């Protein structure tokens, strides 16, 4: 079944409340996905400080202090690592690509679940509300966040199988539904040299979108191309460092509701996840139309 929530803030005075607001939204979706959960925060000054690249990892073989020391030695600048078990987060004042390559060299068996200059991705198994509090999500700040509660259907219940899937710099994709032709799309991408980390159908969608964005296509066009390529029933929330987008399949049987005010834009699988947002009584509330891409850009 799965539950999606996302919040894009327009009003800077709300930035300190991002984590608390997103945590409240996530809590309402626990019954839609009790297996595992994941979340991504854009712009938190502790997890993703300005001028630093950040990387999120699962299954890193190094203790966090050793990871930080090894990155510092390899990069020649001071790196910091956090233990947000089972996720490890590290950042350093280098480019996202430099940090990614350094981690690959130091810990080649670690699973990269997110990287970029703005985003921190956190994943785990178990009750989504408990995970959010263990990670410290209610205290996070920033300008955008997405989260997902998972009821596994296409692959095993694991931390790495939870959403969001973040396979390009500052990119995240969360998904409610299933892609019925994901294996044929996956084989096509593999022939193009794309390497996959999981058996999850959502990763196929994420890597398809990431490939389009890397090729210079904008987010709206990338999601229109996804609609043309993928079969199945799905609602997707896709974010990057300057955009927040929603798209559904042609049948649109997977629920979604969007609310918009001058201060924020929010999306969730059900209205109850939006009900406590500030100013919801005066929000424009609507259900996204089939196959129409909705995109909001950071101002």
UniProtKB/TrEMBL annotation:
InterPro entries: GATase_2_dom (IPR017932), Ntn_hydrolases_N (IPR029055)
E.C. no: 2.6.1.16
Gene Ontology MF terms in the entry: glutamine-fructose-6-phosphate transaminase (isomerizing) activity
Glutamine amidotransferase type-2 domain location: 2-299
Entries under CDD domains matching the protein: GlxB
Catalytic reaction annotation: D-fructose 6-phosphate + L-glutamine = D-glucosamine 6-phosphate + L-glutamate
Alphabetically ordered keywords of this record: Glutamine amidotransferase, Transferase
Pfam family, one: GATase_6
UniProt signal peptide: none
PANTHER family registered for this protein in UniProt: GLUCOSAMINE--FRUCTOSE-6-PHOSPHATE AMINOTRANSFERASE, ISOMERIZING
Name by which UniProt lists this protein: glutamine--fructose-6-phosphate transaminase (isomerizing)
Protein source organism: Nocardia mangyaensis
């Amino acid at each position: 079944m799965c539950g999606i929530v996302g919040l894009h803030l327009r009003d800077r005075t709300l930035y300190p409340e991002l984590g608390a607001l997103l945590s409240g939204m996530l809590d309402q979706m626990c019954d839609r996905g009790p297996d595992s959960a994941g979340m991504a925060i854009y712009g938190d000054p502790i997890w993703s400080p300005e001028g630093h690249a950040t990387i999120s990892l699962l299954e890193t073989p190094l203790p966090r202090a050793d990871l930080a020391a090894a990155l510092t030695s390899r990069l020649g600048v001071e790196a910091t690592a956090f233990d947000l078990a089972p996720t490890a987060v590290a950042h350093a004042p280098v480019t996202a690509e430099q940090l990614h390559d350094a981690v690959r060299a130091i810990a080649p068996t670690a699973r990269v679940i997110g990287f970029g200059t703005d985003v921190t991705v956190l994943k785990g198994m178990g009750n989504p509300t408990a995970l959010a509090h263990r990670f410290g999500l209610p205290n996070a700040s920033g300008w955008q966040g997405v989260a997902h509660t998972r009821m596994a259907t296409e692959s095993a219940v694991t931390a790495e199988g939870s959403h969001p899937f973040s396979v390009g710099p500052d990119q995240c994709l969360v998904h409610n539904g299933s892609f019925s032709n994901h294996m044929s799309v996956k084989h096509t991408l593999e022939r193009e040299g794309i390497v996959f980390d999981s058996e999850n159908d959502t990763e196929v969608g994420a890597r398809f979108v990431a490939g389009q964005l890397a090729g210079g296509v904008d987010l709206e066009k990338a999601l229109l191309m996804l609609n043309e390529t993928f079969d199945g029933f799905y609602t997707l929330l896709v974010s990057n460092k300057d955009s927040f987008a929603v798209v559904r399949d042609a049948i649109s049987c997977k629920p979604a509701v969007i609310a918009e005010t001058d201060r924020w834009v929010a999306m969730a699988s059900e209205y109850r996840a939006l009900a406590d947002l500030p100013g919801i009584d005066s929000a424009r509330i609507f259900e996204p139309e089939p196959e129409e891409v909705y995109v909001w850009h950071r101002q």
